[in-house]
Amino acid sequence: MTPPWFFNHVLQLRLLKKLGLGCLHTINLACFLHLFKENVGSPCLTDGPSMLPTFESTGEIAIESIISHRLAPHNLARGELISLKSPVNPNRIICKRVIGLPGDIVCVDPTGLKASSTEHVFIPKGHIWIAGDNTSCSIDSRDYGPVSAALIRGRIVARVFPFNRFKIFTPEATYIDEH
């Protein structure tokens, strides 16, 4: 005859096994989500006035594609929205528009707010020129110059919330040639 404590012991072992497997599944899911977010892409909340009117100051959700930039880092286009580590605060991720690519000569500040509108700069290899859409409230290349392309995290491919402002982004740029 089997003693009663044996059944209690078996139940405890089964419960521990289920609990342990549940914890392992949770850890696996958390690792998968982290790796997906860091290497493929994820939704991100926008905050701040520097990208008005493209993004409202708060409450909009954009889709950041990291894998598209990792697979084709040299396929950046003028006018494209990107996410990158801030050159002044590496713990902060910022969203800006690509204005100039390596080899371009760009006007430092066409608005004349931070520099003369006649001042131009050459963008060196491995760097880009970025700007916020709301130039009066943006800290960008006009403040810190050409930005290393190594700081680029990914591309902003869409705004998904609020739903009535859903938009898939494509590069938007105006070219002025003086040939």
Break the fold down into its secondary structure elements and pairings.
Layout (H helix, E strand, L loop, with lengths): L3 H36 L1 E7 L10 E8 H6 L9 E5 L7 E8 L4 E3 L12 E3 L4 E5 L9 H4 L2 E2 L3 E10 L5 E2 L11
Short description:
Helix content is 26%, strand content 30%.
Low-pLDDT residue spans:
none
Largest sheet: 8 strands, antiparallel
**Portion in helices:** 25-40%
- Portion in strands: 25-35%
Explain what this protein looks like in three dimensions.
Helices cover 26% and strands 30% of the residues. The strands form two sheets. Strands 1, 2, 3, 4, 7, 8, 9 and 10 form an eight-stranded antiparallel β-sheet that branches. Strands 5-6 form a two-stranded antiparallel ribbon. The chain starts with a helix and ends in an 11-residue tail after the last strand. The protein has helices spanning 4-39, 66-71, 141-144; strands at residues 41-47, 58-65, 81-85, 93-100, 105-107, 120-122, 127-131, 147-148, 152-161, 167-168. By secondary structure, the protein is of the alpha+beta class. The chain is built from three helices and ten strands.
Keywords:
single chain; 179 residues; alpha+beta; eight-stranded antiparallel β-sheet; two-stranded antiparallel sheet; 3 helices; 10 strands; 30% strand; elongated
